[in-house]
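Exercise: predict the fold of this chain.
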Amino acid sequence: MTPAVRHVLTRLSSRHRFLAVALAFAALWLAGCSSVVTRKVVDLSTYKHIYVEHRLTDDKRLDEMIVTELTRLGYQATHGPLTMLPDNADAVLSYEDRWEWDFRTYLIELNVTVTTARTKKKLADGRFYQPTPNSKPPAEVVSKVLTPLFAKK
């Protein structure tokens, strides 16, 4: 503890000292928070086959994790480059990921957009953002973003 912090703490009453410590712990706890924001224009449960667009820069295989999660949620899902879009695809899920490195690589942001397969009309989008190194595993992040969008009622 630095002398300045020690000086401030000794001048505070025990009640104020408790509040200062509680606020410090709250600040540390909130620093590890993540946010998930999703919104959909229509009910996505009517779309049966979802095609996940493979990003050429994706070397972490997020497209495969997304297909696995969509399959778990009860959808037919495949992935690949957009040029290989199958005829039976009802919707296309595109994603953008951002990774950081702090002695290990971790996913800091994931944005997904769901559009109709033929007209490219936007149906839904979702975003995960956690700016701290104590992040969640990528499969858990994918689940947190896709479940509110695709969960069947």
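Check your answer against the key: The longest strand covers residues 105-116.
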